[in-house]
Amino acid sequence: MNDARDFSDEQLNAFVDNQLGAQECDEILAAIARDVELGQRLCALRSAKELVRHAYGNVPAARRGPHRRLPAWGGALAASVALIVGVLAGWLGHHAATTGEMPRSMAALFTTEPARILIHLDTSQADQMDAALDLAEAYLAKAGNAQVEIIANHRGLELLRRDTTPYAVRITELKSHHARVGFVACGQTIARLQGVGVEVELIPEAAIARTAIEHVAERVQQGWTYLKI
Amino acid sequence: MKWLQSREQRELVEQIKASRVRLHRLAFAWCHDAALADDLAQEALTRGLARLEQLRESARLMSWLFAILNRCWIDHLRALRDDLDDEMLADLPSDLPGPDSHAERQQTVNRVRAAIAALPLGQRQVVTLVDLEDFSYAEVADILAIPIGTVMSRLCRARVSLRELLTEAPVAQRQLRSVK
Q1: Bigger pLDDT: B17 vs B34
Q2: Which chain B residues are within 8 Å of A105, Cβ to Cβ?
Q3: Minimal Cα–Cα distance from B35 to chain A, Å?
Q4: Positions of E strands within chain A
Q5: Bridging pattern class, strands A181-186 and A147-152
Q6: Which of A61, A132, B80, B174 has a Cα-to-Cα distance from A154 of 20 to 30 A?
Q7: Tens digits of per-residue pLDDT, A201-219?
Q8: Which residues of chain A approach chain B closer than 8 Å at the C-beta?
Q9: In order of start, what are the domains of chain B with their CATH numbers?
Q10: Does residue A50 share a domain with residue A93?
Q11: Do A51 and B166 touch (CB under 8 A)?
């Protein structure tokens, strides 16, 4: 005969979480009928579980500045959907740029309109910064009318800060040879750095978007191909 | 956008839409900071979408996204303190103030959130994945990349601690029991 002492806390938790096999469930159910203490232990566990669910039934949305353009969820959802489109297109675009081939189903995307590529950099690793610029150059070299933008946020912003960029000269040259290349810094990242006392001075080629993620969503909605480095 | 019109793609988009809310909720239960939770959820989505081609079974989308959220959270913590190894991370005591608005302190929701916030990180993650997301122990083990035995022991300790934390004050206890 089982009583409460025969069941470990692990087993009782597994019972409450519906993780036990049928036989173990039956054993516990049979024991509850004759063991008040066991019933109380299970009840306490069940209550803890219910309380956790209850406590996060309605969590607060992030508090951004009052000028946040997109409604908290709607905007993020739109961005997510837009991103998935962009990522698919981006991956295929990347494939095309690096191999010179293009999946047939996607070819129309790149032949009916001039390529418009958004490259997203969020790291300050030298090889990644390098890759972002290489990629931009590759697209610009491949198609005369290609439009390319690099959006930088988080540590990636270092590419566009005057005192941290290892590539000031390269960016200036790129910009002087190609009118259709742009560099965009994330305003939120800048604000964060300034918030902790960092003075942020951007290179003259850089423009500022309110947030990187909004900029990405906007570009993807305009039909740009999104590429995350 | 013709390639989004297949049923599979539409379903995937629907799941992604739904996941934004779930990622944010879980991230909030881990960090109790709405803005940070938003950033973590957004970062997990961005990383996930950028690596979508690595997702082999669309049925596993959610646990795959939560595993990415876990890595975003760990990266965030490591960025704050670079001396942390995995074990230290799991036992990391909470330095989060938790919801502590004086006027709301007695409310059930805030008391439970404060109790969750007080759990060591490893326990906090396990209990929220099981209770909020209904993941099986095996799925939680997979998401957090820990053995299933560790999932069970952390869950046990979490629920014991929650019970102790939530029954500290008799007045509050009566309030808690009236919820359900």
Answers
A1: B34
A2: 3
A3: 4
A4: 116-121, 147-152, 181-186, 206-209, 225-228
A5: parallel
A6: A61
A7: 999 999 999 888 778 877 8
A8: 9-10, 13-14, 17, 19, 44-45, 47-56, 59-64, 72-73, 76-77, 80-81, 83-85, 87-88, 91, 105, 213, 228
A9: 1-83 (1.10.1740.10), 85-180 (1.10.10.10)
A10: no
A11: yes
| Nearest beta carbon to residue A61 from set B34, B53, B112 | B34
The single-letter DSSP state of residue A226 is E
Tell me the two tokens of residue A168. Answer: 């000031």
Cα distance between residue A4 and residue A27, in whole Å: 11
Residue A184 has pLDDT above 80, yes or no: yes
What residues in B contact A56, CB-CB < 8 Å?
25, 28-29, 113, 128, 132
Q: How far, in Å, CA of A5 to CA of B168, rounded?
A: 26
- Mark yes or no for CB contact A80/B45 under 8 Å: yes
Domain range spanning residue A31? 7-55
Q: For B147-167, what is the mean pLDDT?
A: 92
Do A62 and B45 make contact, defined as CB atoms within 8 angstroms?
Answer: no
Q: Which residue has the higher pLDDT, A149 or A92?
A: A149
